[in-house]
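Session log. Operator J.P. requested a structure for one protein chain; no other inputs attached. Running the standard single-chain path with token output.
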Amino acid sequence: MQNKFESLELGQFIPLHYHHNMLNDAVRMRGFKEAIDWVVKPDTKVLELGGGTGVQSFFAAQKAQKVYCVERNPELVNAARNLLAQNINGDKVEVIQADAMHYLPPEPVDVVICEMLHTGLLREKQMPVIDSFKRRYLKKFGGPLPVFIPEASIQALQPLQQNFQFEDFYAPTIQFQNPCVIQERSKGLGDPEVFQLLAYAEPYSQTCQWDGEIRITEDGQLNALRLITKNILAINMTTYSTIDWHTQYIVFPLAESIRVSKGDHISVRFSYQGGAPLNALSDSLQVRLINKQIPVLEFALEALKEFQSGAVENAGAM
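Structure written below.
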């Protein structure tokens, strides 16, 4: 069923001022510049899906022979052409107005850059766009597939006690958090639990889902879950290291808070399609406290300690 607000979702159509803000994100810019400089070799051919202002195509053009920059938004197409014309090697970039979901380059390419990323792989169309591209590319050109930037995304969930009071106004709403800043309003009640590892060159499902457990490591009032998405922009096999970029964290409030203690376990279940609206996760989210039974060996050891303690006390009384 089509969401009645679908036209308002980011998807592939992000306003120009939003892209201007992304240019000012130094962590994001440095990460992609380093990754593109590492992956793109001299005289190669590059395709960027969802080019925006053309900045990543510009990074690629410093080494590449040719860059195809695909953008759907006509305002951004004009902006990218104007900006690239003012930058060195901008003439290597051909800006094409087209839908990234359907576009294929006229020739095989060595690298594909696609940054349609949002935390949780929600809202933006990273998963369906790359999946569509791979199927159509292999049908037209055969293998191998190009190298993708980013190469992979890792997703995790963390249980939180979140302060939703804002100047005495209680508002348990979805919150965005800067991953590079300490979040004083959030208390972690457990370690982040990885639920998805997605390599874009490999086959993958369009569904993000999990049915698992998280161990509670701190006493508190569980009233939210933090969704963490770490993107592996490139892998350097020479140094056995990765170039990473975290999108903003998202905090999802729970419908009801749960009092938890250290050692408890919670069950978490959800399922949503990549690129779906933010509420797709919260609508399917189920969280409950699990009463764990004490393992037999642990129970026996505790009973033995109590018996020994009692025997010592009785011997002392005699």
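Operator note: Confidence is low (pLDDT under 50) at residues 1-12.
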